[in-house]
Amino acid sequence: MELAxxxxxxxxxxxxLFLEGVLDSQFLQLQQxxxxxxxxxxxxxxxxxxxxxxxxxxxxxxxxxxxxxxxxKVDPHVHQLKGSSSSIGAQRVKNACVVFRSFCEQQNVEACxxxxxxVKQEYYLVKNRLETLxxxxxxxxxxxxxxxxxxxxx
Amino acid sequence: xxxDGGVSCLRRPEMLNIGIGGMESQPLDLDEVHVLAVxxxxxxxxxxxxxxxxxxxxxxxxxxxxxxxxxxxxDNEKASAKLDRLKVDLIITDYCMPGMTxxxxxxxxxxSSSFRQVPVVIMSSENVMTRIDRCLEEGAEDFLLKxxxxxxxxxxxxxLTGDVRLSNGNKRKLPEDSVSSVHASPPLTLSTDxxxxxxxxxxxxxxxxxxxxxxxxxxxxxxxxxxxxxxxDSPVRRxxxxxPGLD
Lengths: 154, 247
Fold this sequence. Notes:
The complex is a heterodimer.
Chain A: H1 3-19, H2 25-32, H3 41-64, H4 71-88, H5 91-105, H6 109-142
Chain B: E1 33-38, H1 42-54, E2 57-62, H2 65-72, H3 79-83, E3 90-94, H4 102-111, E4 120-124, H5 129-137, E5 142-145, H6 150-160, H7 200-204
Parallel strand pairs in B: 1-2, 1-3, 3-4, 4-5
Helix pairs in contact in B: 2-4
Keywords (chain A): Acetylation, Cytokinin signaling pathway, Cytoplasm, Nucleus, Phosphoprotein, Two-component regulatory system
Subcellular location (chain A): Cytoplasm, Cytosol; Nucleus
Domain HPt (chain A): 38-143
């Protein structure tokens, strides 16, 4: 594929993530922190987010599967996931966490199970999308091209 | 709940090596602004560290209030010997942390004769008025709503160089220097529900103070962007104007 075409694809793809609400402007903030001295900043932070989130989701599954659910353990996990997803711009994950927390407050186990599924769904979605995005970037860089600046005037 | 076990604490104010390329130790430079960042979230620590470094601060990032006190030497009385080498110009801390909250850390710092003059900024993902008030009353210089942005950190940086006052007082309009970047070109003007418009005012202006006061609610937000805020308003409270989502 031609370089210009790849760059266009990347832009369109990124744009779609914003339009779908999968990412919000905080992701752009992260991109602003990337430069020649830190060319992989975004993917590095996002990778850490994935590692962190995998662990948290695992802990949450375990906690909610207990005979007696200890919400004092569940809520901080959700809070943490909410925070980190917010920090990287994973808007839908963050929003799902907000809903999750409200059910934690109510100590509604059944609803929390549903919330966990919802959070997981949103998380796997953004994970998948971002991995695709990074692959597109890598292809461009491998072809000797530059990642195009985000033009979001639409 | 950092996954790195908080090993990122150094006793000397040198650049922190946290495993991301480009961070190496540097000798102490007394002219540079040195910031101590405290956050239990690894992702947030990395982001705040980068935000600070990109605004020319030296950063030491730790994962808990205890480590912060340890770093400052407040937790024991051997502080005086270290004072010559330890120069901290700003402490920025998360509010919600296990063990010691940012508020508790703030109190300890303000009780310390060596460090009570150091400005402390609190960060929180929750825009709770009573929490903000409590921190400010305890002597916090400012309160930032997470996720922290480059504009927030730039404002802090300007404050430290004496250009802008953070709390009520004489404020100057911040220079409208675009956040220069390779990737984003502000202003962003999307007009979809899921991505609220980000006007230059929101990027560069000071926060507003009309948050709802409801401590029971998580993420108390108003959904009406108040784009008429003047950049000269006191940036004491940060009003998040975004995401009319599932909050």
